[in-house]
Amino acid sequence: MNKNKYVGLDVDQATTVVAIEDARGDFLMESFLPTRAVELREFFKGLNGRIHVAFEEGTQATWLYDLIEPLVKEVVVCDPRRNKLIQSGNKGDRVDARKLARLLRLGELHAVYHGERGTRGLKELVHAYEQLVGDTARTKNRLKGAFRSRSIGCRGDKVYGARERKDWLAKVDTPAVRARISSLYEQLDCLKKLRDQAHKEMIKEARKHPAYKLIINVSGLGSVRTSQIIATVGSPHRFRTKRQFWPYCGLAVVTHMSSEYEVVDGKRRRKSKPLQTRGLNKNFNRTMKVVFKGASETAIKKAPFKQYYERMIDSKMRPEMARLTVARKISAITLAVWKKGEEFDPEKVNQAARDSDDQR
After folding, report:
1. Bridge partner residues of 17 (DSSP)
2. pLDDT digit string (tens) for 271-317?
């Protein structure tokens, strides 16, 4: 007898709706629980059979995964953007929980990775640093916006400096606006201090991971980008090859093809028309795309990627495509050195091209 049970959870801050189906798709039970560790833990301890659980990625997903995963056979945290069946038709907590249980049983859910616990602390510190960087940028934009509202030109970074602030404030002719700008300056000073402290704590935690010493040596990846990669990816073994890693980083080219085959003399033959591209994949991790595209911009300024980039430009490749190719190369190297535990060798970046030139 198949003892598999499939549990769908619709979770919010106050309550969790539970729906359970058996292996044949028969509805077994429904329950409403407070979203608290004690009640959820006792509920899953009381279930018998092989329990498979699914819920959507959200604010409480990591906490809930850590709570439930030791108690059941499988936990699937799914990507709500890719579960179109949940978004269609009637929507409600009970309806969504039942849909999740059904899709889990059918194997139709797209999972979000939650398996690596060794980088949880680093992940939190990276989030803190990124939020402070974003808050600092927003405060700077508000500061310039306040000056522009009084038709005061403020290009460049001098407007943020501590020495010239009195001169900048003297240009403002309205006391209320001057008071607002003074407040923004104070906010900026506090945010810079907090950002610098968050940066130190993030790097200190990242250096505890063995991968840090390997990844930071890859051209274009400094301490911040290395920390972001380790915190975001968690484990390189999630990806079998670079071709699985590229879509995750938003660096995979989407192709389009229709009417691929024709029948000639009673035999099927593939048409010779070229494969059409549709840009890069749209479902990706945004942090990783920013990291590798930024690394590409940095790496092409010096060896070994400067020669690699210039060779593509000389072959009439568009600059944006050349930069994308460099970003893909850096991501592939990062995955390889992390998996194999080997040091980055700059000589290998241009080795294939040199070998090809020698053969000519």
Report:
1. 10, 32
2. 777 767 778 998 899 999 999 999 999 999 999 999 999 999 999 99
How large a percentage of the chain has pLDDT more than 90?
78
Give me the CATH code for the 4-106 domain, please: 3.30.420.40
How far is Cα 197 from Cα 12, in angstroms, rounded to an integer? Answer: 33
pLDDT at residue 352 tops 60: no
Alpha-helical regions (H) of 237-304? 242-248, 286-299
- The gap from C-alpha 29 to its chain's centroid, in whole angstroms, comes to 36
Closest of 277, 259, 276 to residue 268, by C-alpha:
259
Length of the chain: 360
Which band of pLDDT confidence, cut at 50, 70 and 90, is reported for residue 355? Answer: very low
Instruction: State the CB neighbour count (10 A cutoff) for residue 197.
Output: 13
With beta carbons less than 8 A apart as the criterion, state whether 78 and 55 touch.
yes
In this structure, is the dihedral angle defined by the CA atoms of residues 341, 347, 350 and 352, taken in order, positive or negative? negative
Q: Which of left, alpha, beta for 29 (phi over 0: left; psi -120 to 50: alpha)?
A: beta
Positive or negative torsion for Cα 242, 245, 251, 253? positive
- Residues 213-266: tens digit of each pLDDT: 999 999 999 999 999 999 999 999 999 999 999 999 999 988 877 777 888 888
Nearest to 109 by CA among 69, 60, 53, 59: 53
Can you list the alpha helix ranges (DSSP code H) found in the chain?
37-45, 61-68, 84-87, 93-106, 120-148, 165-170, 175-206, 211-215, 223-233, 242-248, 286-299, 305-314, 319-340, 351-359
End-to-end CA distance of the chain: 67
Encoding tokens for residue 236?
Answer: 């390189």
Rounded to whole angstroms, the Cα distance separating 226 from 334 reads: 10
Which tokens is 129 given? Answer: 């640093």
Cβ pair 326, 296 in contact under 8 A: yes
